[in-house]
Amino acid sequence: MLLHGKAARLIAQAVFLVLFLPLFALPFLVIVVASFATDWNGALPSGLTVQHYREALGGDAAHALTVSLLTAVAASLVALLVGAWAALAAHRLRRAGRGVMDTLFTLPVAVPSVVVGLSLLVAFSKPPLLLNGTPGIVITAHAVLVTAFAYQSVSAALARLDPACEQIAASLGASPARVLWRIRIPLLLPSLTGAAGLGFALSMGELSATMMLYPPSWTPLPVSIFGATDRGSLFTGAALAVVLMATTLLVLLAVSRVRNRASYR
Amino acid sequence: MSVRFDRVSVSYGSQTVLDAFDLAVEPGEVMALLGPSGSGKTTALRAVAGFVTPASGRVLIGGRDVTALPPHKRGIGMVVQSYALFPHLRVDANVAFGLKARRTPRHETVERVARALEMTGMAAYARRYPRELSGGQQQRVAIARALAIRPEVLLLDEPLSALDAALRSAMLTELARLHRELPDLTILYVTHDQIEALTLADRVAVMDSARLKECGTPLDLHRSPGSEFTASFVGGANLLPVSVSGGTVRFADAELQLVAPGLTDADTATLCVRPHRVGLGDGPNALRGTLAEVQWRGATHRLVVDVAGHRVAADVTELRDPPAPGTPVTVHFAPQDAVLLTSGPVREVARG
Amino acid sequence: MASATAGAVPTGRQLSVPRWAWTLPPLAALGLAFLYPLALVVWQSVSPDSGGHDLSAYGQVLGSTVFREALLNTVVIAASATAGCLVLGFTLALVIAFVPFPGGRALSRVVDVFLAFPSFLITLALLFLYGTTGIVNGLWTQATGAANGPLDFLQTPWGVVLAEITYFTPFVMRPLLAAFERLDTAQIEAASSLGARAPRVVGRVILPEALPALAAGGSLVLVMCLNEFGIVLFTGAKGVTTLPMLVYGKAILDGDYPGACVVAVVSVVVSVALHTLYRAVVSRTLPASGGTRAAAR
User: Fold this and answer.
1) Domain annotation covers residue C235
2) CA-CA distance, C268 to A111, in Å (whole number)?
3) pLDDT of B29-61, one tens digit each?
4) pLDDT averaged over every residue in chain B
5) Which residues in chain C have their CB less than 8 angstroms from residue A118's CB?
6) pLDDT for B260
7) Stronger pLDDT, C251 or C151, i.e. the higher one
8) N or C: which end of chain B has fewer CB within 10 A?
9) Can you give the pLDDT at residue C180?
10) Where in the cell is it found (chain C) (predicted)?
11) Which chains touch C (3+ CB pairs under 8 A)?
C-alpha cells in the first residue's frame, strides 16, 4: 500500500474525514435536523418540533408531493421506453449510425436544462401543440432530460451483453422478435430497472427546466421548496426537502430490491 | 444430413479469416476442424450456423443452399465454448427454448425435454438455474438444449476447452457415446486439441491461416501426413531436411532407406519421423550425434540428439540409466516409420 | 432421436424492415420534444419582435454589460468549481483507494446516493451552516457578542463555488476510483520497494495513470457547472448572475423571449462544445468494447 507508517496513515485518514464529513455528510444531516428544529443559530437547535412537517404536509405541499410523484413516474417511464428503444435500435446499427444515435441521445445532457425548458416554452405555447399551462409540458421536459440517462445506461448494458446467448437462441429457431422478448430484454432487466430508478430520482429533484415551465396548478416539490426558502421559511423548506429525499430513497430502495431479484449472475 | 462448404470466404474488413474453404461432410459423420487459434475453424462453423455471412461461396446443408438463410431457419444445434446458457431460465426451460420457438405441442415438449436431459444425465437438475451448476453440468445442459430440437447437424465449438483435464476426458467419452446413440447426427467439431480430434472424429480437417491444409482420417493424418504443418500439429514430428538424388535420400551424409519412396530428384525435401518411432542404439537408418537434452516424462524419456547441427527427438520407454547430455549417442528408425514430404519449405520442428 | 427430425423451421414470409427503420420512432420522439424546440430557439433568436429576421438581438444582448458579466461569472465559477472538484476528488479517491480504512468503501457508496439528490439541497444546507443567521455565525456572535458573524459569502460567487464543489466532487471521484481499481497494485509496490516515497509514487505512478479519468471527470463537471441553475437560484443572490440565470430572468421575469433565446444559443454552443470534448476524452480513455469483433454479429 501507499503509506507504510502508522502515523502517516492516520494523518491521511484524518485529512479524509476532515474533508469528507463537512462537505458530504454534514449538509444532508443539517437539513434533516433543521427540519425538526424550532430555531437554529447556535451549536444545537434551540428546540425540537414537528410543526414544519405539519405545515409541509398540509394542503399545498401534499399536493406538490403528489405532483412530483406523478411527474417522476410518467417521465421516467416515457424516458425508459424511448431511451431503451433507441439504445436497442442503435445497437443493431453499424459504427457510424451508432455514433449518430449516441450523439443525438446524449445531447440533452449537454444542453442546459433551463434551455430545454425555454425551448419547450417557445415550441408548445401555440396551437396545434398547446402544452403550455398543462402538466404535459413539465412531464415532457423531464422525459427529455431523463431519456439521455436511460439511453446511456441501456447502451452500456447492451455492450456488456454476451452475444453468444442471442446467437444460440437464434440457432434454436427463435425469430429476432422472440430473441428480443425472451432473451435480450430479460437479460437487460437489471439495467432497465436501474435506469428507471435513476430517471425517477432525477425527475423528483428537477428544478431548472421546471422553473421555466410549471403551471400554477402543477407545482412539483422542488418548486415548493424554492418557494418556501424564497419566502424565508428555511425550516419549512428543510421539512419539504426531507420529504423529497425520503421519497426518492424509498423508491430507489424498492427499485434496487426488484433489481437484485432480476439479476441472475 | 450432409454439410458442404463450396469455396466459402469470410473477411472482417480487410482481413480474410476464411479463404476459399472447400469441405464436404457426409451424413452421420463426425468431422473435426483442427487448427491453431486464428486458423478460421470457428469462422467456418459460424458460417454453417449463419452467424457470419460469407463474402463469397456457398454453404449447403443436405444439398440445400442456406447461405442467405437467417440462423433461426437453419434447424441446426450448436454448443459454444462458453455454453451460453440462458441465465434467467431454469435448466428445463433452457432445453425447452428451441421447442417453444418451434411451437412444438406442449406434451411433446415436456417429453422431449425429459429425453434430452436423460440422455445427458441431467434429469435430476431440471429445476436448477444455470448459475447453480458446475462447468461440466452446464456443458451437458448446453448439449441437451442443442439436441432437444432434434437437429440433423450438430455444431460443437471448442466444447471442452473450459473444462479441466479430468472432466475433459470424461466428457470426451460421453460425446463418443452420444454419437453411438445418434448415428444419423452429423457433427462438426471445432478444436485446437489434437487428442480430441483424433479420439472423436471420423475425419479431421486440418486448418491453418484461414485455409484448409488437409483432410483425412485420423490414422492417415497421423501415419502419413501430407504437409509439415499437419505432421507437426497432429501428433508432433521430427522434420528433417533431406536431399534426394538418383533415387537415394541423404540426411547429414547418411544414406537413408525408405519404403517405396517413389522419388523424384529434389535438392531439398523433408523427412517426417514421429519421435516415438525413433529408437536408441544402432539399427536401420542409424544417425550418430551428441545428446543435447534429456527430459524425464514419467513413462518415457525424451532424448534430443544433435545430429550434424539438426535436432532429432526420440521418445523412448523410461531408461533406468539415461545417458548424460554431451555423450555421443546413436538413434535409428525403421524405414516404414518415415514419410517423405516434398512440398513446402524446409523447417526443423520438433514438437511433443 | 435424430430420425424424427424437426429439421429446418418452416419458412414464413420474412418481415423485411431495414435495421435503421427501428430507430425512427425514438428519433421522432426526440425530434419533436427536443430537437425541434431547440431549433425554434435558434430561429427565435434571429427573429426580433419587430418582425423580419436579423442578428440585431445578438448585437443587443452580446453588447450588454449584464450578458458579459453573466458570461464572465459563469466561466469563473465553473472553472473554479471544477478545479476544486478535481483537487478534492483526487485527494479523497486516493485515500479511499490506497489508504484503506474501515468503512471507506461504504462511504464512497454513500456519496453515490448523493448523486440522486437535487443540487439545490446543498445550497439549502449551506444556508443553515454558513448563512448570515446560520449556525457558524450564530456561534460566533454568541461567543464574541458581535452583532454580525464573520461569514457572509454565500451570496457571492464563492458561495456558489463552494456548493458546486460539494455537489459535483463525486462525479470526479467515480471515474477516478474506477481507474484506481484498474491500476496494478504491483506497480505501486514495485515503486515503493525501489525506495520511492509516497508523494513521489503519487506524482510519478498514480497521477499519470489517473490523468485520463481526471480529464473525463473534469470536463463532465465543467459542463454541469456551466449549466447549473438550482444552486445559483437558491443562493438568492442578486449579484450572482450566470448564463442559465440570465435565460430564466429574461424569459420568465422580463418576458424577453428573443433575448432569452440569444443567451440560450450562446449557452448551448459553449456547453455542447465542451461536452463533445468530454465524449472524445471518454471514448479514448475507456477500453473500446473490442475483443468481441468476431462474435459481434
Assistant:
1) yes
2) 5
3) 999 999 888 888 899 999 999 999 899 999 999
4) 86
5) 41, 247, 251, 260-261, 264
6) 59
7) C251
8) C
9) 83
10) Cell membrane
11) A, B
Residue C291 has pLDDT above 60, yes or no: no
Q: Is C72 touching A (CB cutoff 8 A)? A: no
Share of chain A above pLDDT 70, in %: 90
CATH topology of domain B3-223: Rossmann fold (3.40.50)
pLDDT at C5: 40
Closest residue on chain B to A161 (Cα):
B84
Handedness of CA A226, A232, A234, A240 (dihedral sign): negative
Q: Which of B10, B150, B180, B187 to mutate to test the interface with C (most CBs of C within 10 A)?
A: B150
Do B181 and C1 make contact, defined as CB atoms within 8 angstroms? yes
Complex ipTM value: 0.83
CATH number assigned to the domain covering B237-344: 2.40.50.140
Interface check for B104 against chain C (CB to CB < 8 A): the answer is yes
* Confidence (pTM): 0.81
3-state per-residue secondary structure call for A144-193: HHHHHHHHHHHHHHHHHCCHHHHHHHHHCCCCHHHHHHHHHHHHHHHHHH
CATH number for the domain harbouring residue C243: 1.10.3720.10
Nearest by CB to residue A174, choosing from B72, B76, B80, is: B72
Tell me if chain A has a CB within 8 Å of the CB of B49.
Answer: yes
Q: How many CB pairs under 8 A join A and B?
A: 74
Q: Which residues of chain B have pLDDT under 50?
A: 344-352
**CB within 8 Å of B119: residues ≥ 6 apart:** B144, B147, B178, B181, C1
Residue A93 with chain C: CB contacts under 8 Å: 19-20, 23
**What are the grid coordinates assigned to A98, written together?**
451508432
- Partner-chain contact C38 A97, CB within 8 Å: no
B100 Cβ under 8 Å from any chain C Cβ: no
Provide the grid cell at B73.
431457419
Contact B45, A168 (CB under 8 A): no
Q: Give all chains having 3 or more CB-to-CB distances under 8 Å with chain A.
A: B, C
Match 422431449 to its residue by C-alpha cell: B112
Domain formed by A61-264, architecture:
Orthogonal Bundle (1.10)
Fold match between domain B3-223 and domain B237-344: no
Question: How confident is the model over C180-218, as pLDDT tens digits?
Answer: 877 767 777 777 777 677 777 777 778 888 888 888 888
d(CA C167, CA A240): 19
Minimal C-alpha gap between A141 and chain B (Å): 36
Q: Show me where the domains of chain A are located.
A: 6-48, 61-264
Residues in chain A within 8 Å Cβ distance of C166: 23-24, 27
C-alpha cell belonging to residue B329: 549417442
